[in-house]
Amino acid sequence: MKVALVGIGKIARDQHVPAIADSGDWELAATVSRSGSVTGVAAFHDYDAMLAERTDIPVVSLCLPPQPRFDYALKAIRAGRHVMLEKPPGQTLAEVHTLAAEAEKAGVTLFATWHSRMAHGVAPAKAWLADKTITKVTVTWKEDVRRWHPGQDWVFEPGGMGVFDPGINALSIVTEILPMPIRLTAAVLEFPANRHTPIAANLTFSDGVSAVFDWRQEGPQTWDITVETTAGRLDLHDGGARLVIDGAPAAAGPDREYAGLYARMAELVKAGASDVDATPLVHVADAFMLGSRRTVLPFEF
Ligand code: NAP
């Protein structure tokens, strides 16, 4: 299937282009970018022109930040294209609900991707937890924003979500593996004095679940989830890539998250189905609604 990639930035180059190249299902048929291109692939500057001229391309994959993405997605859906959204699926929940309704009306596939759910340990963690009684869940997601988002000021602009940009990956795993729904009950958000979005967050949920997100961690990076149950303890390390149960390695492997996303998109298009789960974004929205605000030191890249 032919796919057009829109927004040739960090994640497009790091993950989407190699995942498409390695897949037997997909051909990268066009890019749309204000400045970038991919060698050997038709390059458009004008998105409307690509949609109008390349009617042979049925799928559009949007690798843009959340702020501009809704308008691009709506245009693609209304032009009869199947759409794959980077995470988070919208700046707001209303954007996601609107896109889902529009896709259904147009009879096209909408896939709101959560790449972390494709990590090696996630499916076996979900299977192990399915019949367990959970007593405590601790999420620690601490990374260096300068390393993962160098110079990307959009993360600190309204709609960029700040530390929830990585934190929502943790929430996408937690909401996938736990056998019960959870709800946020309290949050403390730390905003740099010169920025619009938080650089750290401390979240308390129902059912013994808590999470700490921090974007100021230099040196080793931490993406861990620990689940304590009445029948043992589960640890997910490295963003879900490595699963340990009661201290014993249970699953691990090389990165295959984006390969998994494109395989799933191929299945969805073939089945005429959509996959839009906004649950992780619900918790982020609730953190902004319930969170108390702390002002911390100004941040510059
Ligand atoms: P990025 O490199 O800053 O931006 C991606 C591309 O989007 C830019 O190169 C630009 O493409 C286009 N763009 C940016 N602002 C735009 C605007 N206002 N209007 C139109 N186009 C615009 O961001 P990224 O790190 O790739 O992140 C993009 C999305 O992927 C985010 O939702 C992020 O959460 C997700 N993601 C990122 C990572 C990561 O490690 N960075 C990992 C997983 C998921 P052109 O210059 O080509 O027009």
Question: Could you explain the architecture of this structure?
Answer:
It comes from Methyloraptor flagellatus. This is Gfo/Idh/MocA family oxidoreductase. With 301 residues, this protein is an alpha/beta fold. The protein is 33% helix and 27% strand. It has nine helices and 15 strands. The chain has helices at residues 10-22, 47-53, 66-78, 93-106, 122-129, 145-148, 164-177, 257-271, 279-290, and strands at residues 2-6, 27-32, 42-44, 59-62, 82-85, 110-112, 134-142, 184-192, 200-205, 209-214, 222-229, 232-237, 242-245, 248-251, 292-296. β11 and β12 form a beta hairpin. α3 runs parallel beside α4 (93-106) and α7 (164-177) packs across α9. The longest helix has 15 residues, at 257-271. The protein starts with a strand and ends in a 5-residue tail after the last strand. The model has no long low-confidence stretch (mean pLDDT 98). Residues 7-11, 33-36, 63-68, 86-87, 115, 148-149, 152, 154, 165 line the site of NADP nicotinamide-adenine-dinucleotide phosphate.
